[in-house]
Predict the structure.
Amino acid sequence: MNFYENKTIVAIATPPGYGGIGVIRLSGSDSLALTRKLLSPQAEVSFTPNRAAFHYLINNDSGEVIDEAIITYFKAPHSFTGEDVVEISCHGSPVILAELVRLLLSFGATPAEPGEFTMRAFLNHRIDLSQAEAINDLIHAQTAYQARVAAKQLRGELSRLLQPIKDCLIEMIVHFESTVEFVEDDLEPLNLEFFTSKLEQSISEIARLISSYRIGRIIRSGVRLALVGRPNVGKSSIFNRLLEKDRAIVTPLPGTTRDTLVETFAINGIPVDLVDTAGIRETEDLVEQIGVERTRTAISEADIIVAVLDAAVATSEKDFDFLEQFPVNLCVINKCDLGIRIPDELIESLSDLYPVIKVSALTGQGIEELRQAIYNQITVGSQSMIGGAIITNERHYLALEQALSALRQARQDLSAGFTEEVVLVNLHSALQSLGVITGETLLSDIINQIFSTFCIGK
Ligand code: GDP
């Protein structure tokens, strides 16, 4: 993306298809001049920044009115991109929107590349890189929870958290650099304890952020949950029960295997890919064998395995044998409406291994508890993190990992009494890694790669 040509860009900012309104966005110094060419030359229009005003959009070649629109002008630098921006809200007709864009291009506008509006906002320092990424996350959020996490990051939460760490590193770097530069001068001796404790603080804050990535990744990408059990225990019925209420997501996440039945639903805003597997049993039948094989594959790919037993049938330990083949996280005893024939001591021995939930897919009894138990499994060890700053982006996670290892090395070098020059190498490296998250230290091709994942018009 060659941004520095200072062109005025244009794109349709609303999704393709028909809608009540459709928005065209322009950014660049000619935004207003280009927009004026869509208005009647007789109309003496003056645009007031941040005010929306009604206008007729005209094809000045034919003199015909194309549409009615609300036009809003944002004057640089007080706009999303930091440049002059115009938003034209007209009727959401793909034909009208395409016609208006065609005219604006013929007047001299340039088609915006994917993510170019946001990229300009970043390059003009309106937002940092983590905020730019949050815009993409917010737009693509599939659950309200994902949207909340992205909105926090968009408000600069991550940047705010990192700033004191960066300030602290800069302070240390300045001190060490001056010690190196002005060896001859009478500088204050290094307060080792002071710097070690500062390093400790930064290390523990970064380590906390890194550990939030486990739940962050789950919030972003969801988990895969497989229901396993013998045929007829009620797996499909539980599957449908779980989907019934929480079926917030219609489109499955990318990468979903279609071999077994997979649907996505949300528990407390966390996407769950629910996999209904074929039953597990020894069989001579070839087709069934394939089904069982697929089940094993589905299970090996699952993050959470829920074993299902039939309350009315499973009565001896032999019926539980299959459980030992899998790393089961939760056990569900289904068909409790028929009475539980599984001996208490067997249930107790299962409870020692994992939570056991009694349900009836038929009546719905226990399904809420099952949802809660699944949520607990997903968030195990991360409950305290929910609500705080959470790392959801792998790029941020990797940069934090690098910063952490550099800081740990610096701490070790400091306490081993290495020279300032040696300690400085890792302090610089840690600062550099943190800068990668907010975009201060990034190569332009990495920036291009990030923005290329955006849609046009964003
Ligand atoms: P799957 O083979 O494990 O997927 O089992 P299904 O969900 O197809 O259910 C097998 C049979 O058990 C069907 O006839 C269901 O109607 C019945 N079933 C499933 N859950 C329950 C339940 O909670 N109570 C009762 N009474 N029957 C159930």
The pocket of guanosine-5'-diphosphate is lined by residues 229, 231-237, 279, 334-335, 337-338, 360-362 (CB under 6 Å). The longest helix spans residues 157-181. The first strand starts at residue 9 and ends at 12.
